[in-house]
Every structure is written in structure tokens, then in C-alpha cells.
Design a protein that fits this description.
Layout (H helix, E strand, L loop, with lengths): L9 H4 L10 E3 L7 E2 L13 E3 H12 L5 E7 L4 H18 L5 H8 L16 E8 L31 H16 L3 E2 L6 E3 L3 H7 L17
Parallel strand pairs: 2-4
Antiparallel strand pairs: 1-3, 4-5, 5-7, 6-7
Helix pairs in contact: 2-5, 3-4
The structure holds ligand LVM2DEV6 and zinc ion (ZN).
Length: 222
């Protein structure tokens, strides 16, 4: 298996940024993408936003899926404050479970599941957590629930895990083939996390610089 580069790897933070200044767009603005309702308690709708270039690539990926299968968008943009909260919360849990671990061990293990805020692809509007659904909107079996931790899934959340069924493997491959062809990069510890234009993407593709850095979502005028 090829080496997994974790989000805490210093090579990611070292990637230069050439910010393109693209807007964050709401993927619900038309019905091209199915958007799951599990994050709709976020009343400002931040979760439904991604950079324009990311949405264009998601639509390209969707067009390449087999007939009757669609992308199901779950979470895109995440404010930095929320990213920080997720990272600290999971770090606290790991520290409680492993009191002997060093600060660096906790940071590295936490980054298997949540990005350190300073390089977070979601807070740049560059990442999306998504899955596949059939024509009736039913989610396909991907082997674990989305956002399963490595601990709760015995590592089955890793994209290339072998402790999933053949059918789940085939669904993951279908998702991966379409998104990779459209230019997105997967985080190998999470089958559902894909990004374009962020620092992780730049390191993995050999791009000179990231296109998208952390961004605030402009508040809507009432
Ligand atoms: C928390 C999980 N849904 C996620 O998005 N993880 C990645 C690695 C992230 O925080 O960027
Ligand atoms: Zn994600």
C-alpha cells in the first residue's frame, strides 16, 4: 500500500498559497446535486457552500457516474471556529483514551479524522464530504457510515480498507473513479472526504501552490 500522508504532515502546511479569490457558492442554488439533510440544522447554510471550481468538478464527476447513481453532497464549507471545535474535541477524546501519548502523537492521530484548523480544506471551501445514492435517493452501502472514526470502524473508514464487503468496495471504487477523473483528491483515511485546490490537494498532485486558503463566508443581507 502507498504511504498515507496525514493532514498533520508539515509538508502540507509548507505548501504555498496563490489564492484565486473564487466565491463560495451554495450548491443548493439549482437541483444539479442532491444535498443530504443531515446538516440542515446549520441555519446559515454554510455547509452547502464550496468554491466555484469545486462545484464545477463535482458536476463533472456526477456526469461520469453509471446511470441511476448520483452524488449525495453532505458537507462542504466549515467555518474555522467549527473546525477548531472538531479538532479539539477529538484530540481531547484521544488524550483521555491514551494518557501516555505525547502532544505530537495526539495531533497526528487526531489528523487521521479531523484536519488541523490552520490547513483545513473544509474551511477553504475546497473539500466536500459526500457519498453515492440511487435514483430514489437511497444511500449506497459504502462499508461504514460517513464520519465513522478509525476506532469505531476498526479502520474500515480508510478508503482502501479490506474489511468491507465486495459490494461496498465496488461502490467506493465507483465514487473514486468519477471524482479522481474530475480532478479531486481523496483523504485516504476517510472514503467520503474529497478536495480540490487546497494544500493537501496541491501536495498530492504536485501542483506548485494551493488555489484556495481559509475564507470567511460573507453573511447574508436580510
Ligand atoms: C470530520 C471529518 N468529516 C472531516 O471532514 N475530516 C477531514 C480530514 C477534515 O477535517 O478536513
Ligand atoms: Zn471532510
Amino acid at each position: 500500500m502507498t504511504e498515507i500522508v496525514l493532514m498533520s504532515d508539515p509538508r502540507i502546511a509548507a505548501v504555498p498559497l496563490q489564492e484565486r479569490g473564487e466565491r463560495l457558492v451554495d450548491v443548493r442554488r439549482d437541483s444539479s446535486l442532491a444535498v443530504d439533510e443531515r446538516k440542515w440544522q446549520d441555519l446559515a447554510g454554510a455547509f452547502a457552500h464550496v468554491r466555484e471550481g469545486v462545484l464545477a468538478r463535482l458536476l463533472k464527476a456526477q456526469a461520469q457516474l453509471p446511470r441511476g447513481i448520483r452524488l449525495l453532497f453532505v458537507e462542504g464549507y466549515r467555518p474555522l471556529s467549527l473546525q477548531r471545535h472538531y479538532f479539539d474535541e477529538y484530540g481531547d477524546q484521544l488524550r483521555a483514551d491514551h494518557p501516555d501519548w505525547s502532544v505530537e502523537q495526539v495531533r497526528s492521530a487526531a489528523s487521521r479524522y479531523v484536519s488541523p484548523p490552520e490547513i483545513a480544506p473544509h474551511s477553504a471551501g475546497a473539500a466536500v464530504d459526500l457519498t453515492l445514492a440511487d435514483a430514489d435517493g437511497r444511500e449506497l452501502d459504502m462499508g461504514t457510515r460517513m464520519n465513522a472514526t478509525p476506532e469505531e470502524s476498526a479502520g474500515a473508514c480508510y478508503t482502501q480498507a479490506d474489511n468491507i464487503s465486495d459490494q461496498a468496495r465496488s461502490h467506493r471504487d465507483t465514487l473514486g473513479t468519477a471524482l479522481t477523473a474530475a480532478g479531486l483528491v481523496n483523504y485516504p483515511t476517510e472514503w467520503w472526504h474529497w478536495s480540490y485546490g487546497d494544500r493537501y490537494w496541491a501536495l498530492m498532485t504536485g501542483a506548485d501552490a494551493a488555489h484556495y486558503g481559509p475564507k470567511e463566508l460573507p453573511s447574508k443581507r436580510s
